[in-house]
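Title: [Solved] Glycoside hydrolase family 15 protein 3D structure

Original question kept below for reference.
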Amino acid sequence: MSSPIEDYALIGDCETAALVDRTGSIDWLCWPRFDSDACFAALLGGRENGRWRIAPRDPSVRVTRQYRDSTLILETRFETADGAVVLTDFMPLRNGSSEVVRLVTGVRGRVTMTLELVLRFGTGAIVPWVSHLEDGTLRAIAGPEMVVLQTPVVLEGRDLTTVAEFTVAAGETVPCVLAWAPSHHPTPPPFDALAALAETESFWREWASSCRPAGRWSSMVVRSLVTLKALIYAPTGGIVAAPTTSLPECLGGTRNWDYRFCWVRDSTLTLFALMNAGYFHEAQAWRDWLVRAVAGSPEQIQIMYGLGGERRLTEWEVPWLAGYEGSRPVRIGNAAYSQLQLDVFGEVMATFHHARHGGLAPESSGWDLQKRLLQHLETVWREPDEGIWEVRGPRQHFTFSKVMCWLAFDRAIRSADEYGLPGPVGRWTALRDEIHADVCAHGLDPRRGCFVQAYGSGELDASLLLLPKVGFLPIEDRRIAATIAAIEEDLLAHGFVLRYRTHRTRDGLPPGEGVFLACSFWLVDAYVLQGRHAEARALFDRLLDLANDVGLLAEEYDVHARRQVGNFPQAFTHVALVNSAYNLLAARPPAPAEQQEEATAAS
Ligand SMILES: OC[C@H]1O[C@H](O[C@H]2O[C@H](CO)[C@@H](O)[C@H](O)[C@H]2O)[C@H](O)[C@@H](O)[C@@H]1O
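Solution (posted by the thread starter after getting help):
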């Protein structure tokens, strides 16, 4: 059985990522891309579905771990009765090859370690053919894939598993390097693990050093940004929503989805957070990715794509995996790719508008693309859709979707005005005003005076917290105040925010899920706008407390089980965290005592 979600840490090389638990086991790794088949899938099944564990043979008295400063290099320290070792895990940035490096360094005494490598290609199903080459390399091949293990440790094959036992004394370092290559390529050459460590460290340090300081929240903000950067597929600029599939939104339930794709929504929001923190290079790469991905007929625009812009993301269920704590089915692919979600138009237009402010290099095809999107939006905004939450029930006229259509035209008008870009501005203005009137007429509950989830519905929806943030109505507007109050009354669980009441909404799925962390950060933002600073800070700090020991958050949190749930780590959540931190920071100047605290945190 896998570990609790919060026991995992992320390592990655900006093309794929792995999850390592507190016992030194890598239980998830898709190779060579985020969306490839996994060779370690124990996360969604058992050890027989593939994992790589390096840990002390005898029980550890204490396990602590941390990332090395602002990097993606994980250090797990095991204390045993015989001494202490540090296991350093990382994936070097690629330079033609792809590796997972594990270094075992003795800190005190002499510690006997065990290594157990279970390679199962095809996401936990295929046992490869394993051979020991003359130079000591272990090579595993099945079909198109090859994985090799290079280490001075003497390896042995037992029960379709590679095992070893070795002792590390204080001051010694034992390297283990696992490399992937297509099976028709030559076996990867010997790899200098220590040189790679130094290069990887300086890459991440340098990248993190240009982050705009976030006062007392700097370390959590940097961790979130490093995580977001790790989710960007470097060759194309596409951004995955999370590196995992099918971590359940409800333990033991069926709300299990594949997030290893690029949602236009999640990607734009990620960029927003990165730009907020001062990163524009990634924005440029993603804009170019988007221009390529949506090229062609505007009617065929999708809400999500593959890493390279692939369009067919057919969803299927994996029969051989038992699922995370029995949460089945395990899904690969995501049927949401063919949905209509009107909010993405607003998110795209807002992000590009923001990027212009930040000085993103002008590019004519970028504006052309945006104009084409608006042309298409003009023909579809009156349609019902699946909405931001991607319901699998009947389409509805979701209020948030319509508001984001308003936003799309509003930001286009502003871009045209401020940067002298060609319109038709008059046409966009008429549409913007028409949508605004439509939402105010149909998206409001006349009895309570608050906005509701969908036209004609009495249900609330946490996405409505974003209405003042995008400027649809001012925060002082009584309808906005009523909406925030109604959400506080109806959607809070232990002070955190549910997306909506699943048992009262036709989302096509059995009810029940955790509180949605991004939505909880949106409540922080709403409090900031309302000037409720103490409540905003209190909620923000409670949310930060949900992060695991290395600062990572999943999509949701189960307040009863006190467990993280949903895919992990999730971009959406970390994006919201970053934005809330900057919003809180900008809200008011810190008191003198806090200034001192923040200066210490930033140094
Ligand atoms: O629970 C229903 C839906 O859950 C997923 O969508 C959620 O994740 C997306 C990626 O982070 C996010 O963009 C969306 O707003 C969330 O609702 C899943 O991908 C859907 O297929 C599923 O219907």
